Amino acid sequence: MTISTPGVTLGVVGGGQLGRMLAEAAAPLGVDLVVTDPTEDPPAGPVASDALVGDFDEFSTIRAVAERADYLTFEIELTDPDALEQVAEETGVPVHPKPDTLRLIQDKLVQKRRLGDAGVPVPAFRQVDDEDDLLAAGEELGYPLMLKAREGGYDGRGNYPVESPDDVTDALDAIQGPAMAEEMIDFERELAVMGCLGADERDTFPVTETIHREEILRETVSPPRADEDVRERARSIALDVLDAMEGRGVYGIELFETSDGEILLNEIAPRPHNSGHWTIEGCHTSQFEQHVRAVTGRPLGTTERRGPTVSANVLGDVPDRQRATLSGEDAVFETPRAHLHWYGKREVYRLRKMGHVTLVGDGETMDELLADVRALRERLTFQSRSQ
Amino acid sequence: MTISTPGVTLGVVGGGQLGRMLAEAAAPLGVDLVVTDPTEDPPAGPVASDALVGDFDEFSTIRAVAERADYLTFEIELTDPDALEQVAEETGVPVHPKPDTLRLIQDKLVQKRRLGDAGVPVPAFRQVDDEDDLLAAGEELGYPLMLKAREGGYDGRGNYPVESPDDVTDALDAIQGPAMAEEMIDFERELAVMGCLGADERDTFPVTETIHREEILRETVSPPRADEDVRERARSIALDVLDAMEGRGVYGIELFETSDGEILLNEIAPRPHNSGHWTIEGCHTSQFEQHVRAVTGRPLGTTERRGPTVSANVLGDVPDRQRATLSGEDAVFETPRAHLHWYGKREVYRLRKMGHVTLVGDGETMDELLADVRALRERLTFQSRSQ
């Protein structure tokens, strides 16, 4: 290949924080981004060459992006695989990961079935189309269980815990549509692996511990506080997952380490993932650079960890949607080896992902490093100081 | 302070590679860039919020940038300190570094005088306005000596070596204008220190060895292959230089280590500098992030080195100005811990700075690491493969 200017343009469906961090990573490689997002001035806007306005699944906008791009990818699963496929066919612009893989992942039931069939350990699950199915699932999987919308959920949206047969009606009302029931996992900890598929190579970033509350990622810890054997098995399962994926790019693979030491697949995201943000400072190649390399047909970079690294999400801590003004951030600027990543969102609401803080270690234990990044994150608030 | 979106906008006079790398570093901090550059589609364009077209010293463009900015800085010395000063006064937008410091640095004679007076060791020099002055300089400093244009030179332009009194006429013809003569330094190696001035703090990045050919920087080596004592003295002199500077920001401070172990100031650049590009991967805070922090009034980041790091400039290797197409870059992508930085220039000509390659060490000696990055750089060419 070669590099020139104007050179390779990467079209991205979605212009949120993932698009923004993709653009930050793409520029040094001579790759420009054109994104499409439903909102004007999306997070990726200031660092992308251009941001078109259009829904994630709108054929005409996806096509308009492709017409300006050499490669097409997406940073959100809510895009339409049919539209991606048709645009790729009509324009000849390759799309990665493959629309078929996106389809597979979009339907959580299909995802679990296919990966289970491929030998990947998954929690026990059952298709749920009506109350009878859910009651049968309760018999089979026991209570509590997790009812999940088959499509469209993220950050805990679309998940409903079912404690007993009494919850069945409420649960189905909440989910509204095709669903699946999954055994509730008694986990020791959650792990995540960023997998990478290149043109003819596959790799994984180092296994990472993820900590959720209210089903939203709060912190990552890498290396995880888990045995070497657990990490090895997690990596091996991630490689098996990659074998079931089609198309170049990075994949966020979320896992449970159960209390009896089993590793089970939780979910897959066919894109850069919150659990891999620590790689920006923590690895020689970030997940964003890796995705740009992979999708544009470049060789993958090393996934070697540079050093122990933790991250903490900066989430909205105000009850109502309002203009976002973060204060306390000088605490981050004043801390050596702490890095602030602001996502460029104009408005904040409760638990909205507004940014993250990464802290690179310098001899601390992982417990200490996690406590340090949490303490830093606690200094940050969107609440008015006078409140 | 706080962070919001839209938030702090940094206006930058100049939209070249330094502006581009400033924009890459500014985005995670929630800082947008608006640049001004004489060319349409300058290197910083794709990652800046906006790029205005105008000469570096054009009052109206500088004013237009300031009107959209909260802070004003420059990434090229060719801007006009009077214009900066007037714009700052009229708009109330602070400019850093201070126009007075830019004036001081723009005139190499004034720079050397002021710093010499401040106790910074400088090479012997003499003002040269005519042939008599230059001949007198030859008597005083010996031959060969270096004749330097007092203003406007960079990357060796504006420097003329004078071997004997026979060269005097040619040298003055070449320089055309106010000049200074400087003793030719017999140096063991060249060193550079990126200094940083914050609101009420000063610091330096680790001392770096710089290797020039044809007066153009080719490689950097950090840590330098010099004694600890030499590094300590270089850092100490850099701190003295900073004391003579006014205004926040990073400063590139170029030094000679003479063959008898003396450290002498060569030149200062009041901006991020080629000798500091290695800090992007080599330090926890890059010189670009540091400059954004300093100019926008944030605390400085740690200047700690993460690991041994070398860089090699990718220079134009074609005789004539032409469309730039770099090949061989997959060698960089395939090398672990190697990082390509493409500057986004459309055209290449001989010795034009088109990008750089950084290589982070993994146990090699600095000699080996330097050889490795040179070998990688040798794989890169703008020459057509069929030539």
From TrEMBL, chains A, B:
Which reactions appear under catalytic activity for this entry? 5-amino-1-(5-phospho-beta-D-ribosyl)imidazole + hydrogencarbonate + ATP = 5-carboxyamino-1-(5-phospho-D-ribosyl)imidazole + ADP + phosphate + 2 H(+)
Can the keyword Ribonucleoprotein be found in this entry's annotation?
Answer: no
Q: What is its EC number?
A: 6.3.4.18
> GO MF annotations for this entry?
5-(carboxyamino)imidazole ribonucleotide synthase activity; ATP binding; metal ion binding; phosphoribosylaminoimidazole carboxylase activity
Pathway(s) where this gene product acts: Purine metabolism; IMP biosynthesis via de novo pathway; 5-amino-1-(5-phospho-D-ribosyl)imidazole-4-carboxylate from 5-amino-1-(5-phospho-D-ribosyl)imidazole (N5-CAIR route): step 1/2
Describe the location of the ATP-grasp domain by residue ranges.
Answer: 112-296
Enzyme category, top tier: ligase
Q: Pfam families in the record, alphabetically?
A: ATP-grasp, PurK_C, RS_preATP-grasp-like
Q: Sorted alphabetically, which PROSITE patterns does this protein's record hold?
A: ATP_GRASP (PS50975), D_2_HYDROXYACID_DH_1 (PS00065)
| Biological process, per Gene Ontology | 'de novo' IMP biosynthetic process
Q: Which InterPro entries does the record match to this protein?
A: ATP-grasp, ATP-grasp_carboxylate-amine, ATP_grasp_subdomain_1, D-isomer_DH_CS1, PreATP-grasp_dom_sf, PurK, PurK_C, PurT/PurK_preATP-grasp
Output the superkingdom of the source species. Answer: Archaea
Keywords from the UniProt entry: ATP-binding, Ligase, Magnesium, Nucleotide-binding, Purine biosynthesis
Residues binding ATP are K108, K148, E182, E183, M184, I185, E190, H212, N266, E267
Q: Has the keyword NAD been applied to this entry?
A: no
What is the annotated role of this protein in its UniProt record?
A: Catalyzes the ATP-dependent conversion of 5-aminoimidazole ribonucleotide (AIR) and HCO(3)(-) to N5-carboxyaminoimidazole ribonucleotide (N5-CAIR). Catalyzes the ATP-dependent conversion of 5-aminoimidazole ribonucleotide (AIR) and HCO(3)- to N5-carboxyaminoimidazole ribonucleotide (N5-CAIR).
Q: How does it assemble?
A: Homodimer.
Protein family according to the UniProt entry = Belongs to the PurK/PurT family.
Q: Per its record, how is this protein called by name?
A: N5-carboxyaminoimidazole ribonucleotide synthase
